[in-house]
UniProtKB/TrEMBL annotation:
GO biological process: adenylate cyclase-activating adrenergic receptor signaling pathway; positive regulation of MAPK cascade
Domain G-protein coupled receptors family 1 profile: 52-302
GO annotations of cellular component type: plasma membrane
Domain of life: Eukaryota
Protein name: Histamine H2 receptor
First and last residue of the signal peptide: none
Localisation: Cell membrane
Organism lineage: Eukaryota, Metazoa, Chordata, Craniata, Vertebrata
GO molecular function: histamine receptor activity
Keywords of the record: Cell membrane, Disulfide bond, G-protein coupled receptor, Glycoprotein, Lipoprotein, Membrane, Palmitate, Receptor, Transducer, Transmembrane, Transmembrane helix
Organism per entry: Cyprinodon variegatus
InterPro entries the record matches: GPCR_Rhodpsn (IPR000276), GPCR_Rhodpsn_7TM (IPR017452)
Metal-binding is among the record's keywords: no
Amino acid sequence: MEVENMVHSNSMSPASNGIWQKISQNKAPEIMLSKVMLGVILSLLILLTVGGNVLVCLAVCASRRLRCLTNCFIVSLAVTDLLLGLLVLPFSALLQLSSEWPLGPVFCNFYISMDVMLCTASILTLLAISVDRYMAVTMPLRYASLVLPWRVAVALVSVWTVSVAVSFLPIQMGWNTVNGTVQNHGPWASKGKCRFELNRPYVLTDSLLTFYLPLLAMCWTYLKILQIARAQAKLTAVALKDHKATLTLAAVIGAFVVCWLPYFILFTVLGLKEHTDPAIVPEFSIVLWLGYANSALNPVIYGALNRDFRSAYAQLLRCRFSTYSGWKSQQSSPTFTCVILSRCPKTLNRSSSYSSSCLLMVPHPISKGDKLVSMVTILIDCSAMAHTVSQISDLYE
């Protein structure tokens, strides 16, 4: 009977193989088309991530209004997302499209360590931002004396040091694997694969210290900020500016939670099961790329919610200020005119400072007869400088 079954199975195998070959040949164009479309989408995401975060860094450097200590954290976050787009996303796309790793185990572990490091740096930077906003809103009179450049520098160095330590050390030492050996090395390693192995102690420690606890701290600080904002019936101009900045950064943190929370939930579940290769779980790739998409979303949030970032983006994308080199007939559409406020001391009051040449973009042409004056110098009394700048800024808010 067994011989008959063997003969029957052997006699059927060529036909079944032929059927499967025909099915695979028929599906080959569909698979190729889906991979091409996926490759285009991932490439666009990488380009948006790199281009958008380069734009954020240039905007802060080029715009005088964006040069403040809080935006040092924004630049750090943009650098994190930029490095993710350059050093992680291309290789993640390679794995996603081919399911093979041709670059060897050493670079595989470096790539995974970079991925973990940059994600950790993003979370800790957002935590630092929430603390900064909490101090700005709850202690407005002491904020300038507490948040000093050297303290911001120490905070940023601490963020990156902790991120490097919690990412490279466990993975390079094998603390994240079930058998205690370095992943992707040794006789247990799968050739042509890049696996991120998980065990319970590593997953619980990593997820608690670098995601869940910072997330709880951020939620607590923004709830306190919201309570204070509602309690304040009247806001000064400085306080109102702080609240606007806080809302923008709260939106950044909210987007981060929406994008990364599904990944960390699945990461924790798979780690508790001590999964040796999370990448083979179908949902893992979806939640991972949802988290990656957050890096392309941040520059959009800045531009959508912050007028200064919008103006800086527009100037950088035009690659020049909206001025005219000569005379030009006045058009019906509003044109930005460059107005220079001169004879301005370096420090006007405690809350604001301007250099000796303060540049403003006023969205109305200044005419002389039927001609447009492209640039006009206004000499004003220094004592009225702050009030004039505030009036012009509020007028075009």
